[in-house]
């Protein structure tokens, strides 16, 4: 069998190209990026129309949240068919055109794979649900009889990541496992057909020209076959970070290496040594850095998060990744404008007081901090516009986290509101002829791209210039410099320096030959004010 055509022309890893080690990667939540057909939902036509904007921003790659056929019970993370594009977004032909057109502009594509579970509308699960208890079709998932006198109790006490039990009972008496919503049944990764199918899916997309794959919930796939009750502190955990996972990712790496593809894993682990195992040379290329993203706006804690991140990546030679926000996390401007500037899913609540002016000032400084650090940076759509978290009317919330919490959690829809492109156009130029799938709040036009493009002091202008200048830092390591309490100061290549002042006292700038970029104005004595960052050349 000959090589797939895209494999012949996919040189990224095969030539030793390490673009992904220092890339700026832009996360596209297709449903809310741009609407090309006017039906209220973002789509691939909308993304294609905005490729010049993304090229002008200067990003190296686009990471797309799932664009596959899906009932959308969890924003597309309930996949019914990995080889089909959801009709709301377009067609497979359009996806192939988008990948190719982006590549012509120097922008690579990363797709999202959700290996832990599928949709309950996936053909495999529909067949399993139609089969009798004990049938081979059910072996692809985790079906078990219940406990109790009549099997009326779940097989174990595991809880869903979205709240409530992790088990749902079918009318025939069997229960099935779902670590997320009931519409997202977990796959059985001990079954060879599950492993083979996912390797085939990887090849399918690599052959269509994608440069990489982001792996959702990467540490959750493998379960203890006994499915025991959960015991706090038990090692190994019954379904998180089990050793059997590493052979899965080694087999995936062999597939990726055929095409020069790369992986980034969503790996939430507190143990830095175990985290680093996923980044060994024959496993994943990189993983998301959640410690930095959830860290409060505090100089000591940020420095610790940076040091710990670099230290845990060093033994395996993997690049660090830096991200301030994503499709699950409260937007940076809002989070940094609150009394508690960290992030914890359990702490989310309606009506949290927020100072958006303060949050914006800190978010601008954080942008320069993250873009000056060694490694790759992930930028969630709209962060470059300084978008705040939107308050979604309760009757318009779609996120299952809200409903599974009994209505106490506001959910994640507030960071998923359609982008504003043109201040004078209906629905801020999102492209819709009718109201978008999520409502845009009052004042959304203030953040519109066309308005910010005319303002040299806008958040968009700051991001564009920072991404343009970022290569001055090279690939040199980070060296901390002496600095007053509350000030982060470090050097990189050729004497380039970054200073971030989180203290209440203006900071003196060190000697320099050039002021490259500053997140806000210096004071009248040329000092760096509180919540401001600067890039200098010594």
Automatic annotation (TrEMBL):
Record-linked CDD domains: AmyAc_OligoGlu_TS
SUPFAM superfamilies listed in its UniProt record: (Trans)glycosidases
Keywords: Hydrolase
Annotated Glycosyl hydrolase family 13 catalytic domain residues: 27-416
InterPro entries named among the record's database cross-references: GH (IPR017853), GH13_cat_dom (IPR006047), O16G_dom_2 (IPR045857)
Gene Ontology molecular function terms on file: hydrolase activity
Transmembrane segments: none
One Pfam family of this chain: Alpha-amylase
Family stated for the protein in its record: Belongs to the glycosyl hydrolase 13 family.
Stated name of the protein: Alpha-amylase family glycosyl hydrolase
Organism the protein comes from: Streptomyces anandii
